[in-house]
Amino acid sequence: MGINGSFKQKLPPRTVERLSKYRRLLDRYAGADGVHIHSHRLAEMLNVSPEQVRRDLMLLGLSGNQRRGYLVEALLERIGETIDSEAGNRIAIVGVGNLGRALMGFIGNSDTKMFIVAAFDIDPAKTGAEIMGVPCFHIRDIPEKFNELKIDMAVLAVPPEATRAVAEKLMQTAVRGLLNFSSVHLDLPNHIYKKDYDIITSLEEIGFFIKS
Amino acid sequence: MGINGSFKQKLPPRTVERLSKYRRLLDRYAGADGVHIHSHRLAEMLNVSPEQVRRDLMLLGLSGNQRRGYLVEALLERIGETIDSEAGNRIAIVGVGNLGRALMGFIGNSDTKMFIVAAFDIDPAKTGAEIMGVPCFHIRDIPEKFNELKIDMAVLAVPPEATRAVAEKLMQTAVRGLLNFSSVHLDLPNHIYKKDYDIITSLEEIGFFIKS
How far is the CA of B91 from the CAs of A54, A107, A135, in angstroms? Predict the structure, then answer.
């Protein structure tokens, strides 16, 4: 059963997020022939309902065997077909402090189609050098280098006070996706898909639910 | 209009997350007397609908003035009353690599009731010393130190292969909340409120939506 482009575009962000998480959980079974998994086991591991898991997988045209569940190989293959782009993504890390380095390690060690092709900073000790095997350029060169290296995704790990200036540089590129760790709100044009992550928000949510 | 404990417990996680985000956005207006904000402006900044904002604030007993919107001071006060605990939270950072240090910086510089009281690692160059003003102990001392320092929240920033061993140590403490950056799934007892953050999932979501 084929999946066409317009169908893909209709998957909601939360579904795509869960598909990516299913895959990460299933990766440990990769290569094991004929292994099955039940929706309630996936559900348990992700704190969602088994109905949610079945609904998500149904959207990809997958249904489980009532007794044995889903064939892991088939899940991995179909999730990959759905969410991966063939060429992968070319990523820039903007801001090479502790967070930037941590992100470079995470992405570099991951078994995905995400490739870090450049890093950017303003520190002369970093620009012009290689950091963790990746060339580091000055932030003022973002427009030129993004174009030259065909970067389509940027990860923003600069301090809050630098965020807006960097965002203005990004507006001069053809970047299409942005992951923003800076906790500063950015008004970006609609053709850029943006996701913010704010650690304080996560901690405050936990703090709320453990309040006695 | 008072808010009682049982009411608070009924707020869904997504609502609490948004309340925390509203507060971060509103913080820039803090101290400015009599400033109002419209639900559609908050909605725009967070990529949600104005109806969603109004519903969230209605849950806290707040309703806006049709012409002027919401009084910022009142929003900040009520959100604080709702999500903050009076004493704040005592946090341990477990794993003091690049990510651990980045998290210590974020939390230490934030204007919240989140206090980092200890760090844990296995590297002898770190344990026994202070890192960014915080005492660092060996991971084997987690049970003793969590108890002694009354730590109620842990942030897990250790490599994937170390995660399960650390989680077992955490099970020997009275910790109630956990933010897990390790991308390893943990089965924890229900009395621990857990949140996972996985950067690869965020990148894959962005990758999906920018696929042409």
Answer: 37, 27, 36
CA–CA distance, A121 with A134 (Å, rounded to integer): 12
Confidence (pLDDT) at B10 = 79
Encode pLDDT of B119-133 as tens digits: 999 999 999 999 999
Quote the pTM value.
0.86
d(CA A35, CA A57) in angstroms, rounded, equals 17
CB B136 within 8 A of CB B119: yes
β B70-71/B36-37 pair status? antiparallel
3-class DSSP state for residue A178?
strand
Per DSSP, helices labelled H in A32-136 are 39-46, 50-59, 72-83, 98-109
Q: How many CA atoms lie within 13 A of A212 on its CB side?
A: 7
Beta-bridge mates of residue A121: A138
ipTM: 0.89
Contact assignment for B201 to A89 by CB distance below 8 Å: no
| Phi, psi (degrees; rounded to nearest 5) at A95 | 105, 105
pLDDT one-digit tens code per residue, B142-176: 999 999 999 999 999 999 889 999 999 999 999 99
Beta partners for residue A119, in sequence order: A93, A136
The CA distance from B64 to the nearest CA of chain A, in Å, is 23
Partner-chain residue, chosen from A8, A107, A185, that has the shortest CB–CB distance to B25 = A185
C-alpha distance from A48 to closest chain B C-alpha (Å): 13
The residue-averaged pLDDT of A90-114 equals 93
Residue in B16, B13, B15, B19 with CA at minimum distance from that of residue B194: B13
Neighbours of A187 (CB within 10 A): 9
Q: Which residues of B touch A178 (CB under 8 A)?
A: 206
Q: In the structure encoding, which two tokens stand for residue A200, read together?
A: 């304080």
Average pLDDT, chain A: 90
Beta-carbon contacts below 8 Å between A and B = 187
Who's near B157: CB < 8 A, 6+ residues apart?
A: A102, B93, B94, B95, B96, B97, B99, B100, B103, B181, B182
Burial class (CB in 10 A: 0-12, 13-18, 19+), B168: exposed
Residue A7 has pLDDT above 80, yes or no: no
